[in-house]
From TrEMBL:
PANTHER family according to UniProt: METHYLTRANSFERASE (PTHR43464), UBIQUINONE BIOSYNTHESIS O-METHYLTRANSFERASE, MITOCHONDRIAL (PTHR43464:SF19)
Source species, domain of life: Bacteria
Alphabetized InterPro entries for the sequence: Methyltransf_12 (IPR013217), SAM-dependent_MTases_sf (IPR029063)
GO molecular function, one term: methyltransferase activity
UniProt KW DNA damage keyword: no
Positions of the Methyltransferase type domain: 41-134
Signal sequence extent: none
Keyword Transmembrane: no
GO process terms (BP): methylation
Protein name: Class I SAM-dependent methyltransferase
Amino acid sequence: MEREQLSHLAHGDHPISAPIGEEGLDRLLARAKLPPKARILDLGCGEGAWLTRALARYPDATADGVDVSEPALAATARDADSRGVSDRLRLHRTPAAAFAADGPYDLVLCVGATHAFGGLAATLAAVRAHLRPSSGLALVGEGFWERPPAPDLLTRLDAEPDEYADLAGTVERMERAGFATVHGHTSSRAEWDEYEWSWTGTLTRWALAHPGPDGDAALATAREHRELWLTGYRDVLGFVTLLLQRTD
């Protein structure tokens, strides 16, 4: 099975593609306090949880969602229909780094998708390029080291020691890129556990209901992911979502 399809299946019961719950998501969107007729962009929108909830909260806003996954974009469209916001949402199947906007945005999101740009620094540069000068806001979600990772964990994650900073260093990296931090949400252990149990469990149930090559591949992916989480990065890798404002 393709990676995009596996990810879509795994997020079936947790459409927020990051270890953050509905309450944290809603609180961050409320803190944005977007202006009338705001324009919103989500780079790597996945199943579109941030977009559909933002459009429901700000009833005169419009939004663009960008992702390479056809199943995820289809799920976003269905959710937008169910919430009555589809007329204010445009979806684009294209790499986030290649998206060409038709104007600046009041809010740009990239939560749990910095890999689409090759890392945090390139993500922040791309987000900044899409933002309205001075008043533009960004919501960026990124991992950080809760404690220094052991060398064997770095090997298992195929990561470098400086791929993430600690929490203070992550905030500093974002502010060095020309942003001020105006709010944030640090994912709790309970949010991480909910996300990981949902990811692995939803994919496992699908696999058991679909015996055969696809089911076998999905089950193997779920088990490998669960083992890496439980015996590797649990309590080592954290996640923070920061609300940022341009400082120029």
